């Protein structure tokens, strides 16, 4: 029998802190009222937010050097769904799950979809994997996949992507995210232009296989595993390729896939302006593709990204609809706790950005009052919107304090008993 946290347990845990939460909420309501803002409208807005979970995020990640698995890790995609459902149960903001193939391949996708739906989850974009060799695959991706010199290798990689689309379609997904590690480790190894030509030609075949209501997301990454020249290294290349491919191709911004100090919010603004901002992989980073928990290093950057997203909605309304997903690697924390905290950090940035006094900001910009424009953003960023997020969770049946509730439930201890380790199982397969 699979242990899931009983609903009553969450309600009992909430009861301990409800009076305190109400007091904090009322105090914040007063502060916001003085700024002409209605806390109830913001709480409703917070309740409408969601960010998808990466199926691979519920297992311990690992680095190039080692992986230190935790207790009770999921051993297959069905167990991953249980952990994702727990994250969603307590936070109420993560109803989507993004699968990665072949890591999450199952013989029975229909059963997977039914079980996920029964747990209140649906499937977000699916991810293909041609950055590793799958067990038993005839040809190696050692020298590239969609850009490989060998046409047979490219055909194999194209077929895998189309397979992902078909599987995703059965699961109810509406998008395919393509990240590939293709590139060169040495100057001269590739004809730089030739590699991109091959990429485009492969992607055209995948694009042609997309169902009419699907999007394909191009995920760029500066480097790793190609350390000299990654084929899709930056948003410019991603934008050019998405434009070449057509309206169903969009760009996906993984926050960790840029050089340190890159102005990511400006990339977001540019892609939004030209209609190619498809979605995000949220995480945080200090040096490179660190896959640290969202908001753990640079929450101000996350806020500034959401400030651009707020601007996109103000300009384009419902037509502006990028997808949100976490993409993190958890090495020293319980993945469920990290995912819950991170989802809330992303939701926090969303509500902080909603607090920006846009009239004042426009006025200060018009007057070239740089100091007051910056102060206007800072006022929103500095506002502790925690009570809004907690109240939205409680009203939706989630936990006032998800990590405390999760720990009190001893969920992980239950899983440690239910899921004795099996040889070869891992969270992602990524090292
Ligand atoms: C690559 O670094 C990446 O960000 C892509 O999104 C992959 O699908 C994911 O990580 C796999 O861990
Ligand atoms: Mn990513
Ligand atoms: Mn990455």
Automatic annotation (TrEMBL):
This protein's UniProt keywords: Isomerase, Manganese, Metal-binding
Molecular function per GO: isomerase activity
SUPFAM superfamilies: Xylose isomerase-like (SSF51658)
InterPro entries, per database record: L-rhamnose_isomerase, L_rhamnose_iso, Xyl_isomerase-like_sf, Xyl_isomerase-like_TIM-brl
Residue stretches making up the Xylose isomerase-like TIM barrel domain: 101-291
Signal peptide (from-to): none
PANTHER family found in the cross-reference section: L-RHAMNOSE ISOMERASE
Entry protein name: L-rhamnose catabolism isomerase
Annotated source species: Herbaspirillum lusitanum
Lineage: Bacteria, Pseudomonadati, Pseudomonadota, Betaproteobacteria, Burkholderiales
